[in-house]
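Aim 2 progress update. The chain analyzed this quarter is reproduced below.
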Amino acid sequence: FSIRIDEHNNHVFNKSFTLRASDWEVFFKIDNLDYVIARKVEAHFKKMKSRKFILNLVKYPELSEKIVTKYKK
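Predicted C-alpha cells:
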C-alpha cells in the first residue's frame, strides 16, 4: 500500500484527482487482498464519494467485509 500512496504523492497519475495534493496518507487499510480485488474495492469506495461512508468503514468493520465479499465472488 505504501507504493500506491507514494505514486499519488509523486503525481505519477497525470490526470487523476490525486494530482491536486501531495500529502496523501493511509486512512483505512484492508489486509490480505489480491491486487485485482483490492482495486475493485478501492473503486467501490471512491465511487461512493461520501465522507460519511468512509468514516463508517472505520466505525463498522463489517461494512468493508461485506464489500470485499461482494468482489471475491
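DSSP finds four helices and no strands in the chain. The radius of gyration is 13 Å. These observations will guide the mutagenesis experiments scheduled for the next reporting period.
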